[in-house]
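Contributing new records

If you add data, match the layout below exactly. Sequence lines come first and carry their own label; structure lines follow with theirs. Keep one chain per record. Anything else will be rejected by the validation script.
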Amino acid sequence: MDLLNDISARFEPAIDADTEASQRRQRLAQQVAAVRRRSRRIRTLRTLLPALIVGLGLLNVGWIVVSSIIGSLNVYNTSGTDIRMTNPHFSGLNGQGSPYTVTGLEAVKKAGDSVIITLKAPAIDFRGTSDKSTHISAANGVYNGQAKTFHLMGNVVMTSGDSDMTFRTEEATINLVDLTMSGDKHIDGTGSMGHIVGESFVISKNGSDVVFKGRGDTKVWATLNRNHAKTGR
């Protein structure tokens, strides 16, 4: 019985030496190619992983910096019920009928409060007797609709329209009825008439009337225009 099975079994010819060598070379080439692909992947990962770690670190640091800047611009904490406006633009008239505009990057109205509006990077523009406008900007601002005031905080800069003076202080209040700017913080004024320094101030008439107070009873009064300046103590 075993003899019959051996006779009827399928005949498989023997593999010659050349074919076997060719098959071995093919297997070896496949193994070498696989090793090279694995080596390339390892080299790529060794290059990308440190770069990815550094990039994630820089992204984390950048987000911390951006969050800090955004947080520093927030005058009040807001909730989901607050009303936010991007690039707000308000306009109105002062007590003498002169127009003014108030703009900013963002405005926030507290929920249930129709009077107080906070602004980021606010700016106010208005005209006096000349064709030039007075421009006032700051880092933050709070508008009080009932009192008709605009309180500015952080890097307050006023470029006068009726003179060539530029005033800088850290805090000021704009009265929107008569468009005067006042404050009790240190202020610097620079222009063609020189450098004026005070510890408190009142600036009116589109920047042409200036009253600075120094320490104690020291007081400087000035009327400015393009042609001349009068000062007194």
